Amino acid sequence: MTTSAAASGTAPQTTEHFDVLIVGAGISGVGAAYHLTHQCPDKSFAVLEGLENFGGTWLMHKYPGIRSDSDLYTFGYRFKPWTGPPVATAEEILTYMGEVIDENDLDRHIRYRHRIDSATWSSEDELWTIVGERTDTGEPVHISANFLWMCQGYYRHSEGYTPEWDGMEDFEGEIVHPQTWPKDLDYTGKNVVVIGSGATAATLIPAIAGDTAHITMLQRSPTYFIPGHNVNELADQLRVLEIDESWIHEITRRKILHDQAAITQLSFDQPDILKAELIKVVREYLGPDYDIEKHFTPRYRPWQQRIAFVPDGDVFKGIASGKASVVTDEIARFTKKGILLESGDELEADIIVTATGFNLSVLGDIEFVIDGKPLDFSKTVTYRGMMFTGVPNMLWIFGYFRASWTLRVDLLGDFVCRLLGHMDEIGAKRVDVALRPEDAAMPLLSWMDPENFNPNYLMRSMHLLPKRGDKPEWQHTQDYWKERHEIPAIDLEGPEFRYT
Ligand SMILES: Cc1cc2nc3c(=O)[nH]c(=O)nc-3n(C[C@H](O)[C@H](O)[C@H](O)COP(=O)(O)OP(=O)(O)OC[C@H]3O[C@@H](n4cnc5c(N)ncnc54)[C@H](O)[C@@H]3O)c2cc1C
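Above: inputs. Below: predicted complex with flavin-adenine dinucleotide.
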């Protein structure tokens, strides 16, 4: 690390310098720090994190029952064996990440309570200058870096997405979003309505149903779930055989990824078969008299939205016991006592939980400026969902929807370190990507094909995201199974890369 003096307004300002700056200490940022430490030991780097600790998603979400919806053998890093049950609580994930930080001495690189507000690229200096604030002291933060590794996630952490419904102000009870769950919320003996039927609703409902008078999941339309036991029989069997945990981790990952590839393929080739299979399992929990058609038969193809794993079918057990119920209807308006539905029914509630999703945040709400010009991210074209045309020395980790996010953290970790090594070899200070002559006539489309994947938060914010082309290199294909071969094989001297 070196320091230099730069001018900021009239007051002299000390600017620290790093080779690489990682934004965010969630599972992506901690993974990025690990890969830099091990694969680029000569690079100086810092991780800037706005929150008071590491963990990102897993630190911030405090609603009861918060847990992963994918298995930790693949949501865990490839380099750190997971030894617990496949689906983990936020606390277990934080413990795991804490071990990665301790075992690799990463803490000395992480600066908490450092919020980044702007990032400015100067082609003259071939540097990014980051300006932010220490949220504990209010002191300004000025750092320069050669390369920005954006690990800021994809949604705004300060508040979740709550639609505006008529009459919300009339409701006399409490309205709560899971992302900002009040610590002291007392739901004991209360009637609770949860709006939404995604992974959050499926997690929250079984966690609090036992304490409420009744809990209702109110959905506009049904969602797919995969109920199953929270065990991995292969891993447990290997443990009985006293196989080394690092082997168990690798073998179990391979088996899970192999099975997931088959399911993903089926969702494209024979969606009706997969749909029938998923619904059949739900029926087994709810019995033949339950109206599965109305409440658990989605209108979309499986995997067009994320499918939540439901450990031990807990949410279905709650419904079968009568403690929880499902209503599939549209909201007409909020009333004093609850929610009036389009059907004319009224759902009475003391507490309404809006499990209605996220606000997408592109690039951590950081204002980007390149050579004096504000960056309009939506005017760029993405290179494999990680780099962007005309944006130098920057890579964003945006994980997978149909596979665990972290698989891409490891793949892109290798890629960044290879790219930085290549730049050193050829003496380049700057890299960006550009469309090639053969891409001139390529149609520029929205970031994600809605036919492929279409959750509401993405649909609402597609106009903010970079464009995609119709070739695999100009889109985030969301296909881990192809990318695990394609990304390591990327030719860094290919015509899409520009170095100076
Ligand atoms: C409840 C929930 C459950 C999920 N479960 C799964 C799952 O089971 N499997 C799966 O694959 N995915 C899951 N996801 C998706 C999940 O977000 C990712 O898997 C993953 O945790 C994202 O990690 P990340 O480090 O990229 O981003 P985040 O966890 O969002 O962390 C980003 C970090 O960057 C920091 N940051 C952002 N902007 C700035 C700034 N301007 N300045 C400083 N710091 C900044 C934030 O404070 C945060 O700590 C889930 C998401 C949610 C919300």
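Residues 23-29, 48-51, 56-57, 61, 68-70, 75, 115-116, 151-153, 157, 200, 364-366, 397, 399, 404-405 surround flavin-adenine dinucleotide (CB under 6 Å).
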